[in-house]
Design brief:
The complex is a heterodimer of chains A (273) and B (111). Chain A is of the alpha/beta class and 273 residues long. Chain A contains ten helices and ten strands. Chain B has a single domain, classed as STAS domain (Transcription Regulator spoIIAA, 2-Layer Sandwich). By secondary structure, chain B is an alpha/beta fold. In chain B, strands 1-2-3-4-5 form a five-stranded mixed beta sheet. Classes of the chains: A alpha/beta (273), B alpha/beta (111).
Chain lengths: 273, 111
């Protein structure tokens, strides 16, 4: 059982993380910790850098020296073998669910086990059936992904993310495209995974209700910068106006650069007209 | 990397085969463990396969799947699987997976 009265040690530490896309900086000096066996929610409006941060944490995007530490070791300095070992410790549920449409649900869940383990085929099949049972999908193993509802596809994707019994689970926008009841069911599943399996879970979302329901710790981002990090109570009490704006769902004023707009209309590169 | 589980030589008495397992029963150890245990499970002389798991700190889904395979091999000739000394966490996992309905679990004799 998860004991929140004691501070959990950080499994992953982000320390002064910077990131660029095509020479444009998209993350600026991000620092926070991800405690072991707790749920950390990374929040922020679309385009704030949440998914880029996620890509760094799962080792899909190269990271500068000592900017992301896993168990106190520099992820950016991992060898290929160490990266493979790290990836065996993690599961990722992408926003789309990312199931193979040409395979049955049970075969989809079996894919990582066939690729990464020496387990017998029958053992793998039983493992996949157990995962489906744990996620309330026991009767749909032989269905094709196209035959599932959005919520079921998401849970099947989660079953596949859990195929290797990961110690760390990353979930990107779990509620996206789901109705409120299905989304709430997925939140409950995430809480159960923490409580029954002791997983460290990182959820990226912009859904406030879901975030406050599941989070042990929260990280709020804005335009590539970290605005606040702490417990849900600390985030609610934040005096940062941008945090309060986000929590209050207040829209930004629309800003227009008229010179740039006119320049684009004129088919010119620069802002000069 | 988890240390492989090496079953000690089984104790066989009146058709009850008792195997003591040590170490994690997981993705890493199951490939080496499965065939040996299936061998005991499929023997006609085996009436009960009793796994002493008091020294098993971790049981994952691969371990549970192997237990299902053992159970299948045993019920095929009217034998049964008995698990002793399971950790609380392992019991919870077996329950969540619905496996506590098909397998007998007992506390370790010395508990």
């Amino acid at each position: 059982m998860n004991d929140l009265s004691r501070p959990a040690p950080d499994l992953i530490t982000v320390r002064g993380l910077n990131s660029t896309y095509h020479r444009q900086q998209v993350l600026f000096d991000i620092s926070f910790g991800i405690p072991s066996q707790q749920i950390t929610v990374i929040m922020g409006v679309s385009g704030c850098g949440k998914t880029t941060l996620l890509r760094h944490l799962i080792g899909l995007k190269p990271t500068g020296p000592n900017q992301v530490l896993v168990d106190g070791r520099d992820l950016g300095a991992f060898t290929e073998e160490e990266l493979r070992t790290y990836r065996r410790r993690i599961g990722v549920l992408f926003q789309s669910g990312a199931l193979f449409n040409s395979m049955s649900v049970v075969d989809n869940i079996a894919v990582p086990l066939k690729v990464h383990t020496r387990l017998a085929d029958e053992t793998i099949r039983i493992m996949a059936l157990i995962k489906l049972k744990l996620l309330g999908l026991a009767d749909v193993g032989d269905y094709m992904p196209s035959q599932l509802s959005g919520g079921m596809r998401k849970r099947a994707g989660l079953a596949r993310a859990l195929a290797m019994d990961p110690e760390i689970l990353f979930v990107d926008e779990p509620s996206s495209g789901l109705d409120p009841i299905t989304a709430a069911g997925l939140d409950r599943l995430i809480l159960e995974l923490r409580d029954t399996l002791g997983m460290t879970i990182i959820v990226v979302t912009h859904e406030l209700e879901s975030a406050f329901h599941i989070a042990d710790r929260m990280v709020v981002m804005d335009r590539g910068r970290l605005l606040a990090a702490g417990s849900s109570e600390e985030i609610r009490a934040s005096s940062d106006p941008r945090v309060q704006q986000f929590l209050g769902r207040a829209a930004d004023p629309v800003t227009v650069n008229p010179a740039g707009y006119l320049s684009r209309l004129a088919g010119r590169e620069s802002g000069r007209v | 990397m988890a240390a492989p589980v090496l079953p000690r030589k089984p104790l066989i008495r009146d058709g009850v085969v008792t195997v003591v397992l040590e170490g994690p029963v997981d993705l890493t150890s199951v490939p080496g463990l499965r065939n040996r245990l299936l061998g005991y499970a499929k023997k006609r002389e085996t009436r009960v396969l009793s796994l002493d798991m008091v020294r098993v700190p971790q049981l994952d889904t691969a371990g549970m799947a192997m237990l299902v395979e053992l159970w299948r091999g045993l019920v095929a000739h009217d034998a049964s699987l008995r698990l002793t000394g399971l950790s609380e966490n392992a019991r919870r996992l077996l329950h969540l997976a619905g496996l506590d309905q098909i397998m007998t679990t007992e506390d370790a004799p010395h508990e």
